[in-house]
Specification:
By secondary structure, this protein is mainly alpha-helical. The chain has helices spanning 2-13, 31-45, 51-56, 60-68. It starts with a helix and ends in a 10-residue tail after the last helix.
Length: 78
């Protein structure tokens, strides 16, 4: 799953490849490209990744952990 997320991020940012701990924003990402990545992750993995997660976990590894955790780690208690 991490490889797929890294592939999507690299594709959207038009990079040849990225490391698991590369920061999305340091690589040139911004809110519009985060939206594109989120949409592609949803299509590819059938998982929704809110834009706020990109600010909390801005690396492919962080996004993967979010997906694997089911988003529970970033949800607020009611």
């Amino acid at each position: 799953m991490q490889e797929e997320i890294a592939r999507i991020v690299a594709e959207v940012l038009r990079l040849d490849g990225i490391a698991p701990d590369d920061d999305f924003f340091a690589l040139g990402g911004h809110s519009l490209t985060a939206s594109q990545v989120s949409s592609r992750i949803h299509r590819s993995l059938n998982v929704e990744v809110p834009l706020s997660v990109f600010f909390e976990r801005p690396t492919p590894l962080g996004l993967t952990r979010y997906v694997l955790d089911g988003g529970a780690a970033t949800r607020s208690a009611p």
